[in-house]
Specification:
This is ParB/RepB/Spo0J family partition protein. With 264 residues, this protein is an alpha/beta fold. The chain is built from 12 helices and 6 strands. A hairpin with a 6-residue loop joins strand 4 (55-59) and strand 5.
């Protein structure tokens, strides 16, 4: 272990080159999912350009041992590279609080781990939504909205983190969570897993609330029918002639609509 800074104020953060084997796991790590491709990419970057940001550690009572506070992805990348040491800053703050705050500020944290990190800060340190928003540099409404995803059933949260985090946005997940009924949440989650946008999901939620059947395609057709109806009324009122190219396409649609109505 090599001391990186000497002859400085006692309050200045200490930078050391720590033995990786001396660093213990972090029980307060908010991140539960580690993307393998991203870890490999980080390891490649460190191998090429070096570590750009030291990890944070805290001293443990046992001499020469440390607890990881922040930087687990960087530590894992070093382990993949077979490195024996890593640059680290020794912090004297509250490790569990620093850990969670440092992680929730990372943009690559998925919506569920982000919400759980916020929840842990509230439970452990008694933050209000307003105070927590100030700590992480966000408005209180951001905290409130983020926490809504924890209303979802555990199987949906697990599926999101395991299979869907890249395909389903945090906004879509929150839209589903705001629907209180679990059966409805599961139906909407099934649709969202197939690639619904926020607008399409809101339309599906409205259909669920009003008891109207329909998937994303039928909801889109319903909106189009209304728009076409309004356009035809304007066309009739203005007495404008219909171009031949539109006449031909309308004739094709007329035949297709006829088949749909006959099937119904």
């Amino acid at each position: 272990m090599v001391d990186g800074l000497t002859g400085v104020s006692g309050n200045f953060p200490r930078l050391i080159e720590a033995d990786i084997d001396s660093i213990r796991d972090n029980p307060d790590q908010p991140r539960t999912v580690f993307d393998e491709e991203a870890l490999n990419a980080l390891a490649d970057s460190i191998e090429r350009y070096g570590l750009q940001q030291p990890i944070l550690i805290a001293e443990l009572p046992e001499r020469g041992t440390y607890r990881l506070v922040a930087g687990e992805r960087r530590l894992r990348a070093h382990q993949r590279l077979g490195r024996k040491t890593i640059y680290a800053i020794i912090t004297t703050g509250k490790p569990e609080e620093i850990t969670i705050i440092e992680n929730v500020l990372r943009e690559d944290l998925d919506a569920v781990d982000f919400a759980r990190g916020l929840e842990r800060l509230i439970e452990t340190h008694g933050y209000t939504h307003e105070a927590l928003g100030a700590v992480i540099g966000k408005d209180a409404t951001v905290v409130t909205k983020a926490l809504t995803v924890l209303r979802l059933p555990s199987d949906i949260l697990a599926d999101y983190q395991t299979n869907r985090a890249r395909a389903v946005s945090a906004s879509v997940l929150r839209e589903i969570a705001e629907t209180g009924n679990e059966d409805t949440q599961r139906r909407l989650w099934k649709r969202a897993s197939q690639g619904l946008t926020v607008q399409q999901l809101r339309a599906a939620k409205k259909a669920e609330a009003t008891g109207e059947p329909g998937n994303a395609e039928t909801l889109a057709v319903a909106k189009s029918i209304k728009a076409i109806g309004r356009a035809i009324e304007k066309l009739k009122a203005n007495g404008s002639p219909l171009p031949n190219i539109h006449r031909s396409r309308l004739a094709e649609l007329h035949a297709e609509i006829g088949h749909l109505l006959a099937d119904g």
